UniProtKB/TrEMBL annotation:
<keyword id="KW-0378">Hydrolase</keyword>
<keyword id="KW-0269">Exonuclease</keyword>
<feature type="domain" description="OB-fold nucleic acid binding">
    <location>
        <begin position="6"/>
        <end position="113"/>
    </location>
</feature>
<dbReference type="Pfam" id="PF02601">
    <property type="entry name" value="Exonuc_VII_L"/>
</dbReference>
<protein>
    <recommendedName>
        <fullName>Exodeoxyribonuclease 7 large subunit</fullName>
        <ecNumber>3.1.11.6</ecNumber>
    </recommendedName>
</protein>
<dbReference type="InterPro" id="IPR020579">
    <property type="entry name" value="Exonuc_VII_lsu_C"/>
</dbReference>
<dbReference type="GO" id="GO:0006308">
    <property type="term" value="P:DNA catabolic process"/>
</dbReference>
<dbReference type="GO" id="GO:0005737">
    <property type="term" value="C:cytoplasm"/>
</dbReference>
<dbReference type="GO" id="GO:0003676">
    <property type="term" value="F:nucleic acid binding"/>
</dbReference>
<dbReference type="GO" id="GO:0008855">
    <property type="term" value="F:exodeoxyribonuclease VII activity"/>
</dbReference>
<dbReference type="Pfam" id="PF13742">
    <property type="entry name" value="tRNA_anti_2"/>
</dbReference>
<dbReference type="GO" id="GO:0009318">
    <property type="term" value="C:exodeoxyribonuclease VII complex"/>
</dbReference>
<dbReference type="InterPro" id="IPR025824">
    <property type="entry name" value="OB-fold_nuc-bd_dom"/>
</dbReference>
<keyword id="KW-0540">Nuclease</keyword>
<feature type="domain" description="Exonuclease VII large subunit C-terminal">
    <location>
        <begin position="138"/>
        <end position="430"/>
    </location>
</feature>
<dbReference type="InterPro" id="IPR003753">
    <property type="entry name" value="Exonuc_VII_L"/>
</dbReference>
<comment type="similarity">
    <text>Belongs to the XseA family.</text>
</comment>
Amino acid sequence: MKQRFSLYELNSMVRDVISMSLPDSYWVEAELSEAREGYGGHCYLELIEKDERSNTPIAKAHASCWRNRWIFIKPNFERITGQRIHAGMKVLLKVHAQFHENYGFSWIVDDIDPNYTMGDMARKRLEIINTLKAESVFELQKELALPMFCQRIAVISSATAAGYGDFCNQLADNDYGLQFQTRLFPATMQGEGVEQSVIAALDSINAEWEQFDCVVIIRGGGATSDLSGFDTLALAENVANFPLPIITGIGHERDESVLDMISFQRVKTPTAAAAFLVNHLTEVYARVMNAQEAIVQNVKHRLQVEKMRLDRLSNTIPVQFSLVKTKQGAYLDRLMSRLSTNVQSKLSEAQRHFEILSQNIQPILERKMLNESHRLQLLSQRIQAQDPELLLKRGYSITLKDGKSIRSASQLKSGDIIETRFAEGSVKAKVE
């Protein structure tokens, strides 16, 4: 008969073989495709190795870090690297092999070297920085200028973050009573969703960027280990090419992300971002007040100079006026003398001409008057000869009808009343 084993017996044999063949711990380089903390405080990792040229996975394995080791490894790793263990991170693990009859094979993590991960993070960060410089966008934000009256603020933050409330309160309660208008664009500020969430908020602001003076990206609270989401090429490119100045307040003094490097201004905390904006507007206010004072002083100085000049002019005016008056008086005297001489000459000439005309006209007028007098006498005689009274006295009569003289019998008809006047008296008659 063929020898048969139960599954448990077979797995036990595998366990014994592995424990005898791989009795030691080994340092292994791998990339994390998954990292999660499970129930009971244990950490479960999925390890992967990719081909450098094709990026195709060529090896996979499961690793576990039990709670009694994880409580020491985790804080040390996060303290040194400034990040939590997460998918996509490269790590150097010290592991030993374990095969369990019920759960199968797994690598058990004894330690994780944070310095290896730090080197890989630095390498990735340097690659991102070199890429941004090669694209000539690394310094674009630094070339922007913060508007003088920077008061319309677009804020990218978590709506429930204490840092966002601190930022708004710092702006509202400034010592100078300066006014700011803020508008929140909510975003995830920790974990794996940071990159896409912040980019989406930037896209929303960019759609109406003319409504704002600057953008503030703040992250209040949270662990330093959550800063990994701000060290990505896509987010850095979005910020570098953004049309408005971007102020970041996402970390602590010793932690500088790629986002901090390429932003217009990096500050430590949300309250520091608010203080930066208040100080900027305060400086502008001081410049305005200084300019106002300078204008007032310049105007006062100019008025004093002009007053002194007018005083000097007013002192010289009487002398100048006296000289002008004398000069103009002499000129007017000469004009009057010339005018008087010319008038006298014209009058004398006109008088001589009038006398000559008088001597020539008088005989002509006398003859004309004599002729006209004779003509008037003749006309008078003719008029007197035509006087109706004289005709009546000679025996003539005048027949009238309605006060008008009748020259022809055809002007009368039967029944008309006519009046006949004589030199002495008149009669009325009726025509039959």
